[in-house]
Amino acid sequence: MKKKLKVAIIGPGNIGTDLMFKVMRSDWLEMSAMLGVVESEGLKRARNLGFIASTEGIGYLERHPETADVVFDATMASLHKQVHAPLLEKLGKFAVDLTPAAVGVSVSPVVNPEEGLQSRNVNMITCVGQASTAALHAITQVIPVSYAEVVAQTASKSDGPATRKNIDEFTYTTQNALCRLGGAKSARVFSVINPCKPECHMRNTIMAIPEGPFDIEAVDKSVRAMVARVQAYIPGYALTLPPMVNHGIITTIITVTGAGDFLPKYAGNLDMETASGVRMAELYAQKVLGGAQL
User: Fold this and answer.
1) How high is the pLDDT of residue 102?
2) What angle do CA 74, 76, 77 make, to 5 degrees?
3) What digits encode the pLDDT tens for the residues 86-99?
4) What is the pLDDT, as a whole number, of residue 294?
5) Which of the residues 51, 100, 111, 220 has an alpha carbon 20 to 30 A from that of 180?
6) Residues taking part in catalysis
7) pLDDT 10s digits, 31-45
8) In what order do the strands lie in the sheet with 105-106?
9) Which of 124, 108, 245 minimizes the C-alpha distance to 182?
C-alpha cells in the first residue's frame, strides 16, 4: 500500500504555487505535477523542484491519468464548471476546487468533512467562506440565528484578477455557505478590498441576530473551541474580538495571518483557501490509506 497520494495542481499562479509548498510538507500527500496553459514562473518553480510541469493543462492529466490521485483546481470558476469538473469526474480523481464554482459539495474541514469525503468533488467555498462559516457554525451550535452578516477586509495585493473577475460567484457562494454550513437562515456578505500601506491582514467581522435568549458565555466558549480546531491547520487564524452583544446582535472578529509559505503573511485570505484545501485532501488520503482521523 502506498504511503501518500499523488497530487496535481491545475493553475501555476500564486495560489497554485502556495499549494505546492504546502503539499510538499504534507505527511499524506506527494506533489507530482503542476499544470498550466502557458510557460510561467509557477511552472518553472515546479520544474526546478523536480516535479512535472506541463503547458498542456488538464490535457496532460487526461493523457497521463496515473500522474495524480488528487487534483487541485486553482484556475477560474467557469473553467472548473465547463471543463475541469466533468473531466476529473470521468477520470475518477478526487477534485479539490479552489474556485467559487460550487459544482461539488461545499465543505469546511471543521464543519462537514464527512459530507465532503462522500463526494469526488469538494468546493472550498471562498476564503471568506472558510474563515466565517466556521465561526458562525460555532455560534449556531448554541443559539439559532435568523440573519448573519459578514464584512471581510483583505489587502488589495492579495486579491488577484481571478478573484475580482469572479466577485459575483464569490459573494453568492459565500452567502450560501453561511446558511448551509454556518446555520443562519439568511445572510449577506460584503467584501472590502483595501489598498492601504502597509498591507492589512485579512479581517472578518461576523454579526449574527439570534433567535431568543442565549448565554453569551456559552457562545464565547463555542467560538473559542472552533478557533482552536481551525488553528490545527491554519495557525494564523485568531480570535481578535471575542463574541460580544450590542443591541441584541452578536459580533465577533476573526483575523487571519498567512503562514508565509510562498505568499506574504498579510495574504491570510489566500492561506484560508489553500490550507483548507490541503486539509481536505489529507483527510481524503487518510480515508483511502486507512488512517481516517476526522
Assistant:
1) 84
2) 115
3) 999 999 999 999 98
4) 47
5) 220
6) 127
7) 999 999 999 999 999
8) 52-54, 29-35, 5-10, 70-73, 94-97, 121-123, 105-106
9) 108
CB 284 within 8 A of CB 70: yes
| Mean pLDDT value across residues 4-24 | 96
Cite the residue boundaries of each domain of the chain with CATH code 3.30.360.10. 127-267
Q: Which residue has the cell 450590542?
A: 246
CATH class of 5-124+273-289: alpha beta
Provide the pLDDT confidence category of residue 291 given band limits of 50, 70 and 90.
low
CB contact at 8 A, 132 and 152: yes
Reference 15, options 101, 102, 75, 70; nearest CA is: 75
Cα(178)–Cα(137) distance, rounded to whole angstroms? 8
- To the question of pTM greater than 0.90 for the whole model, the response is yes
On the question of pLDDT at 167 being above 90, the answer is no
Q: In whole angstroms, give the CA distance from residue 171 to residue 40.
A: 29
User: What stretch(es) of the chain map to CATH 3.40.50.720?
Assistant: 5-124+273-289
CATH of region 127-267: 3.30.360.10
Q: What is the pLDDT of residue 292?
A: 54
Collect all residues with Cβ–Cβ distance below 8 Å to 134 and sequence separation of at least 6.
108, 110, 111, 226, 229, 230
Instruction: Reply yes or no: is the peptide bond before residue 235 cis, omega within 30 of 0.
Output: no
CA distances from 7 to 32, 137, 165, 233, 280 (A): 5, 30, 27, 19, 13
